[in-house]
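ESCALATION

Customer reports they have been waiting on this structure for their group meeting. Please prioritize. Original submission:
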Amino acid sequence: MIVRQSNFRVSLIAAMSCAVVATALFGCNSRVSLGPVADAHSVADIRTAFGGAEQAAAAGSGGAAIGTGWATIKGHFVFDGTPPKMSPYAVTKDQATCAPGGKIPLQETLLIDGSGGIKNIAVYLREASRVNDSAQPKGGEVVFDQKSCMFLSHVIGATVGQTLDIKNSDDVGHNTNIVGKNQFNQIIPAGNSVPLKLQKEEATPAAVTCSIHPWMSAYLLPRANGYFAVTAADGSFEIQNVPAGEKLDFQVWHESAAGAGGALVITTPEAKALEWSNKGRFSVTLQPDEVKEIKVTVPASAFRGLRG
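Update from on-call: job pushed to the front of the queue and completed.
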């Protein structure tokens, strides 16, 4: 009998404790909640928890939503006016190698072909909310050669993680000097090469020179992804599989551009339609699977030392 009374007292105390806890949590006449009511904050938290942080942040802050799908942008840069003539480099030594046959190579500071196309303009996406598989950072080597005391690629782009194979195809040595975040300064013996693994992205192309032959010059653009292009001899470029459905800001650079840091600043009506800024940037929003082609006419005044 004593045991039964003890058991009864324990059960009674446990029941009373549960009642007190329930009252404290829900009140005397409250029903147990069946779950939270969905609101904007809850939705944002859930999206964040399941990897949608960017979308949730955009929705919660009123910012631009992340788009879907991919698109392509392509176009031409055309010089408006009479192209300037390039002067020969000031070759002061190793003439047999650097001026073969007595012919001194011309400078490459502003190359314009017969159609007016402008070579060596760098066009690249400043920031990407997402990156297509085709534009992910690549491995392998990018050849960066020197011949006849000239860099064979005057403006060259690569992705971070790639190895720059700095070659010397001449019969004299070169001292290749790369400034910036991927700093490099080494002697490349005749007929040899030295690898440089690119570790960091650059906001603008980094200058490359040779202290042995000071007229030599080139530019290296390492980027975190493949959303960049350097215009061909006819001024054409193409960047595939960029994010669609969202505003994209592209930087446009040329070594002789009059804008700060090489920014190519254009104020023509067609540039205004692209929201071209005084920092050498234009903006577009592309639809999924769209192939947008632009033609940019560049006045002479956009380059240093030239008049429109």
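Sent to customer with the following note: Residues 1-62 have pLDDT under 50 and may be disordered.
Escalation resolved.
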